[in-house]
Write a structure and sequence with these properties.
transferase, two-stranded antiparallel ribbon, Arc Repressor Mutant, subunit A, 204 residues, methylated-DNA-[protein]-cysteine S-methyltransferase activity, MethylDNA_cys_MeTrfase_DNA-bd, single chain, 17% strand
Length: 204
């Protein structure tokens, strides 16, 4: 698991937010927005949005037809007007690894660095998601039990839905207790495709 944990969270702690891999900017009047590079990447299941920071860490992965939701999650993560999206000047490492993933090298994204915000519980869930092996699935209940919170399956589901970095933090690998494909932010057709793709190319 490669979520980057940093401790400089003091400025936003009072607001109830804890940040991973993000150094908040001190609030002295207007706050300078953080620049994130945006790439629009063609894939077999639609155009994908990839956001990275100056350190080449992933900040968001979403789908072009869900761009409004991506902006909503960014506001929740970092605050209103705290992020400025700029067209990437050159392909990022994350883009190249994701392209490799879609070409069949499903392990290519396993070590990609990710930096994002969220509550302490959300971070625990997102870290646990990165521990689900490609080509396998877990139920919300099993994932909650792995976190030693067996009563928190619903909360795990909500954290799953708030994940801003799809595919790399593989919320699509979580299914219903009866093995049904429950909701996925990119649409159930994409969830089904991703699971089939990973099962097909799972390393021996």
């Amino acid at each position: 698991m490669n979520l980057i944990l940093l401790s400089e969270n003091r400025q936003r702690a009072a607001a109830g937010r804890v940040y991973i891999g993000l150094v908040p900017i001190a609030r002295s009047g207007a706050m300078t927005p953080q620049p994130f590079a945006l790439e629009r990447v063609p894939t077999p299941i639609g155009r994908m949005l990839v956001l990275t920071d100056a350190q080449q860490r992933l900040r968001a992965v979403d789908w072009e037809d869900y761009e409004a939701r991506m902006h909503t999650l960014l506001r929740r993560q970092y605050g209103k007007d705290a992020v400025q999206l700029q067209d990437a000047r050159q392909p990022s490492t994350a883009r190249r690894r994701l392209e490799d993933y879609f070409d069949g090298d499903v392990a290519a994204i396993a070590s990609l660095p990710v930096a994002l915000g969220g509550t302490e519980f959300q971070r625990l869930v997102w870290q646990a998601l990165r521990g689900i092996e490609s080509g396998t699935t877990l139920s919300y209940g099993v994932l909650a039990a792995r976190l030693l919170r067996p009563e928190a399956a619903r909360a795990v589901g909500l954290a799953n839905g708030a994940n801003p970095v799809g595919i790399v933090i593989p919320c699509h690998r979580v299914i219903g207790a009866n093995a049904s494909l429950t909701g996925y932010g990119g649409g159930l057709h994409r969830k089904r495709w991703l699971l089939d793709h990973e099962a097909r190319w799972r390393p021996a």
